[in-house]
Design brief:
single chain; Alpha-Beta Plaits
């Protein structure tokens, strides 16, 4: 049975869908310079651009008789109320990238990417909305409705029932889900292993440094700064699509309520300070310094002093020492307050989760051991 028919043999209402949400295919460069999308594609792509994405010239808009498509800031927007499913925009010869597809009007899950790139690092650098073809969505789908085709995920709407399995499991968090709130349904969020970047941030700003990558190239020891701490120039905030990370007092801080766990910030941090932790109540140590206490105290007032009090007093053995700082294993931590109680430096943070999150996860059958996680 095709998407165009239902079990009664009648045609299923359809709407147009543009399988691209990014702007990495040269949209800004082509704007006002090309008359058609075909002309833009024929002119070629530059290094670092997505060769499979929407070029944003708007040839599809011109053929739509219902006025259901519009070009807004280089992005093709489909008005589902106006679209009658005629398929003119998806016809051969309209979109040279073959990005427009007809899907059921009642579809609730969408994967807006058509990238054929097979390197995850390249995809992440090229486009924040790019599918990294990890296959997690394909493996977790209970209906077998998702598959990887040409290095990007595709949904078979004849099989899709609109559950949240693929949206929760998606590592990049690019799957659009109109039924479920991704900021609520998630298993992991980002955490910055530093809380004392104010000194470094101020120093780099004084030197005219504007991004973390340039700052990380400098000799921090020579500048009397922590060699492993947050640079505080906000490179991570620039790649976050959900506004979940911000620089506060010179240090990147994650809002776990807004974070969906896409990991874009973890790839962007040049010092690899951002890690993924379970979204549940737990204790965390925001420090990654490997320096001795004497050297650490000269450059930071909020670093772990490696006294091992938390390690020696944890009743569950959830804490271990790595280099010159403590690390808490969230899988073992039972969220008691012992480590915070004995920490003489008061640096251990508590991640709190609203009670309704637990209730919703239980209601959605998202408990560990279920097929969702």
């Amino acid at each position: 049975m095709s998407n165009a028919e239902n079990v009664t043999g009648k045609e299923t209402p359809q709407v147009a869908f543009v399988a691209c949400s990014g702007s990495a295919a040269g949209k800004a460069r082509f704007a006002g310079k090309c008359k058609t999308c075909a002309q833009a594609v024929e002119s070629g792509f530059e290094r670092g651009e997505c060769k499979s994405g929407c070029v944003g010239v708007g040839s599809c808009v011109e053929v739509c008789k219902q006025g259901a498509l519009k070009l807004e800031n280089g992005k093709i927007i489909v008005d589902r109320e106006k679209c009658n499913g005629c398929g003119d925009c998806a016809a051969e010869g309209v979109c040279p990238q073959h990005l427009i597809r007809m899907i059921p009007a009642d579809a609730t899950n969408f994967i807006p990417c058509s990238s054929t790139e097979d390197e995850e690092e390249v995809v992440r650098k090229t486009c924040g909305y790019g599918c990294i073809a990890c296959g997690e969505c394909e493996r977790v789908c209970p209906q077998g409705a998702v598959s990887i085709v040409d290095n990007h995920a595709v949904i078979d709407y004849d099989k899709c029932v609109g559950c949240s399995a693929c949206t929760v499991r998606c590592k990049k968090k690019i799957i659009v889900d109109t039924l479920h709130d991704l900021t609520v349904i998630k298993d992991k969020v980002a955490f910055v292993r530093c809380s004392g970047g104010s000194r470094a941030s101020a120093k780099f700003k004084e030197m005219g440094i504007q991004n973390c990558h340039d700052a990380a190239k400098l000799d921090a020891k020579e500048l009397n700064l922590c060699t492993t701490g947050c640079c505080g120039q906000g490179s991570c905030t620039a790649v976050c699509r959900y506004g979940a990370i911000s620089v506060v007092n010179g240090t990147a801080v994650v809002d776990p309520d807004k974070c969906v766990g896409c990991r874009d910030c973890t790839f962007e941090c040049p010092r690899h300070l951002i890690t993924m932790v379970p979204y549940k109540g737990t204790k965390l140590v925001p420090c990654s310094s490997v320096d001795d206490y004497e050297d650490k105290s000269k450059v930071c007032d909020s670093g772990c002093i490696a006294c091992e009090d938390c390690y020696n007093n944890c009743p569950n053995g959830a804490i271990y020492m790595e280099g010159k700082h403590a690390v808490i294993d969230p899988a073992v931590c039972e969220d008691c307050n012992m480590c915070q109680y004995v920490c003489s430096h008061n640096i251990i943070k508590a991640q709190t989760v609203p009670e309704y999150i637990y209730k919703q996860r239980e209601a959605m059958d998202l408990e560990e051991g279920g097929y969702w996680l």
